[in-house]
Design goal:
Keywords: Cell membrane, Membrane, Protein transport, Translocation, Transmembrane, Transmembrane helix, Transport. This is Protein translocase subunit SecD. One of its GO terms (molecular function) is protein-transporting ATPase activity. There is one protein chain. With 613 residues, the chain is of the alpha+beta class. It has 4 domains: 7-26 and 444-603, Up-down Bundle (Multidrug efflux transporter AcrB transmembrane fold); 32-107, Alpha-Beta Plaits, CATH 3.30.70; 141-222, Gyrase A, domain 2; 281-411, 2-Layer Sandwich (Gyrase A, domain 2), CATH 3.30.1360. It is built from 14 helices and 23 strands. The chain has helices spanning 7-24, 48-60, 82-96, 112-115, 140-162, 184-197, 220-245, 270-278, 340-352, 413-425, 446-496, 502-531, 536-568, 572-603; strands at residues 32-39, 65-70, 74-79, 100-107, 123-124, 132-138, 166-173, 176-181, 201-208, 211-218, 251-255, 259-264, 282-287, 295-298, 305-308, 314-315, 319-326, 332-338, 357-375, 378-396, 404-407, 432-439, 499-500. The strands form 7 sheets. A 4-stranded antiparallel β-sheet has the order 2-3-1-4, sandwiched between helices. Strands 11-12-6-22 form a 4-stranded antiparallel β-sheet, covered by helices on one side. A 4-stranded antiparallel β-sheet has the order 7-8-10-9. The mean pLDDT is 83.
Length: 613
């Protein structure tokens, strides 16, 4: 019989619609502004005592809160407004001190009956008021100083290997290394070696300390290249760390000479994100000093100290992979894999230093709040940055190893996991500090966002009015299909964990237009068939059947464009492409199957004298 679906097809369509309604409902529950508190050191547990200390500080400052809870490794305190959230962060940062990371958060309010089956609200991009914005500054002076220190050690080692006698090699200012030679002959040999191997420096002969000497000064081009490398390397590292955290559509972008902007839309555990992004943790492997001319470092877990050689064997920069494992005593450790250069150097050192102690130095950049300063009429928290170097392991070299070995001496599995993540994601080329952190409202302004939402509603309403006026009952079918199309788009994007941005809303509007276009094609085809004198049931069947190929062709070509946009686009362009792709699939379902099902239910199999279209 024409225009009749079997029962299973109606049930299938109903199941899809119920699926869409269920998984779109979480978007009716907005997130609460919240503060998250996490310890700066992995493995340190925050508890009810910390929570009580935080809530006491809020009460003393008349900040209302609710829904406080102790989570696995952090605390969460919900607040009533964004203004309270920002004020609470400032108070807790000062009151709790540098032992804790205080981060802005958005706490979900989705009820358990929706989350039980994986329901969750759609992540919103920063332009739709979701996520956190960090502005981080690269310490270029520290980076260049570190590079000069490394060059100093390399020059000493190379001069010894070349048989060039010297009395001293030292960094004398921000961009210059001074080399004091024994006599003029050795200075000539040194200059020849410098010209072959140190193209980033210009040389200047002089007499210093009564000795023939050479000043090696970094060229301006070399400094610029080093700064560019540091920014690019830090961007890559931050991207890797963000990917490890699992943030949807993040933005990591250079700003000016020495700053990087990081935007994390939809991020929930922002305290962990801040801790991971800002931590400049690295490892250095050094031999214990034999001649007393090394550097003294404290052990992390005791009051002991040890002197290690100044020359570094390998660093975290040489690490290509790092995973959590356990040593022979069942204590947490990190299994490390080095690159070829690091592996070769480690192999040489262990071969020539069997049974001699080698230390693992853990280096971490930290900061602590020191108070507020007025900047452009606003109070801005100021931080003191400092570096911590602690020995986490000192053991005799029991055998020759190169690219793969184990690092022990860690306090907990959590610390091992965090160190492995940082090493795996890559070391920061230069230390970084947070200079700004804020929640981000609509980038185009709340008024523009409200107008954009209003325009969608008005446009949708006008489309419905047009369809009902011109196509009567069939226009009602189209309106139901359009509504369910929006519900399905929201449901699928929520399940996919996609991030909705302002361009994504444009994709939804375009989807509505395409879905209407499909219905117009179908209904116009039905009218043509009726005008040609075809029976009503035959006209309905022909209208859906013959318009389908045209609709399919139009949607396939648009879908291909969406795939290309996603493949070559970035950021908001990808968001538009995702929304458009999902909308194409749902509009095919609602414009063809759903409206056909409604038509069949109302008119299918009936002996009609006239069709209201």
């Amino acid at each position: 019989m024409l225009n009749k679906y079997p029962l299973w097809k109606y049930l299938l369509i109903a199941a899809v619609l119920l699926f869409g309604i269920y998984y779109s409902l979480p978007n009716l529950y907005p997130n609460d502004p919240a503060i998250q508190i996490r310890a700066t050191q992995a493995g340190v547990i925050v508890n009810n005592a910390t929570l009580n200390q935080a809530t006491d500080l809020l009460e003393e400052n008349d900040i209302a809160y609710f829904g406080e809870e102790v989570q696995e490794q952090s605390l969460l305190i919900r607040l009533y407004s964004n203004e309270d959230q920002l004020l609470a962060k400032s108070i807790l940062t000062t009151g709790l001190g540098g032992e804790f990371v205080i981060a802005l958060n958005l706490a979900p309010t989705t009820p358990s009956w929706l989350t039980a089956l994986g329901g969750k609200p759609m992540a919103l991009g920063l332009d739709l008021s979701g996520g956190v914005h960090f502005l981080m500054e690269v310490d270029m002076d520290k980076y260049i100083a570190t590079r000069l220190t490394n060059w100093e050690a390399d020059i000493k080692r190379s001069l010894r290997e070349e048989g060039i006698r010297y009395r001293g090699v030292s960094v004398i200012n921000d961009d210059t290394i001074q080399v004091n030679l024994v006599n003029d002959e050795f200075r000539d040999q040194a200059n020849r070696w410098f010209s072959r191997n140190l193209n980033d420096f210009v040389t200047d002969d002089l007499t210093a300390r009564g000795l023939p000497s050479v000043n090696l000064t970094l060229t301006e081009e070399a400094i610029i290249a080093m700064e560019d490398y540091a920014i690019q390397q830090n961007q890559t590292t931050l991207n890797n760390r963000v990917n490890e955290i699992g943030v949807a559509e993040p933005l990591v972008q250079r700003q000016g000479r020495n700053r990087i902007v990081v935007q994390l839309p939809g991020e929930q555990d922002t305290a962990r994100a801040k801790n991971i992004l800002g931590k400049s943790a690295n490892l250095e492997y050094r031999l214990q000093s034999r001649d007393g001319n090394g550097e003294v470092f404290p052990f992390r877990d005791s009051n002991r100290t040890v002197m290690l050689e100044r020359d570094v064997i390998v660093t975290g920069d040489n690490v290509t992979n790092a995973t959590v494992t356990y040593d022979q005593n069942g204590r947490p450790a990190v299994s490390v894999t080095l690159d070829s250069a690091g592996g070769a150097r480690m192999g040489d050192i262990t071969k020539n230093n069997l049974n001699h102690p080698m230390g693992v130095l853990f280096i971490e950049q930290k900061s602590e709040p020191i108070g507020y300063e007025m900047v452009d009429g606003e109070q801005v928290m100021q931080y003191r940055n400092y570096e911590v170097k602690e020995v986490i392991s000192l053991a005799n070299i029991a055998g020759v190893f190169s690219s793969q070995f184990q690092t022990t001496g860690l306090d907990s599995s959590a610390e091992a996991s965090e160190l492995a993540l940082l090493l795996r994601a890559g070391a920061l080329a230069a230390p970084m500090t947070f200079v700004e952190e804020r929640t981000v409202g609509p980038s185009l302004g709340a008024e523009n966002i409200a107008k954009g939402f209003t325009s969608v509603v008005i446009g949708f309403a006008l489309v419905i009015v047009f369809m009902v006026v011109f196509y009567k009952v069939f226009g009602i079918f189209a309106s139901v299909a359009l509504s369910m199309n929006l519900v399905l788009v929201i449901a699928i994007m929520s399940l996919l964990g996609a991030t909705l941005t302002l361009p994504g809303i444009a994709g939804i509007v375009l989807t509505v237009g395409m879905a209407v276009d499909a219905n117009v094609l179908i209904f116009s085809r039905i009218k043509e068939e009726l005008n040609a004198g075809k029976p009503i049931q035959t006209a309905i069947d022909a209208g859906y059947g013959r318009a389908f190929l045209t609709i399919l062709d139009a949607n396939v070509t648009t879908f291909i464009v969406a795939i290309i946009l996603y493949a070559i686009g970035t950021g908001s362009v990808k968001g538009f492409a995702v929304t458009l792709s999902v909308g194409i699939l749902t509009s095919m379902f609602t414009a063809v199957l759903l409206t056909r099902a409604l038509t069949n239910l109302v008119y299918g199999g009936r002996n009609l004298k006239k069709l209201p279209i």
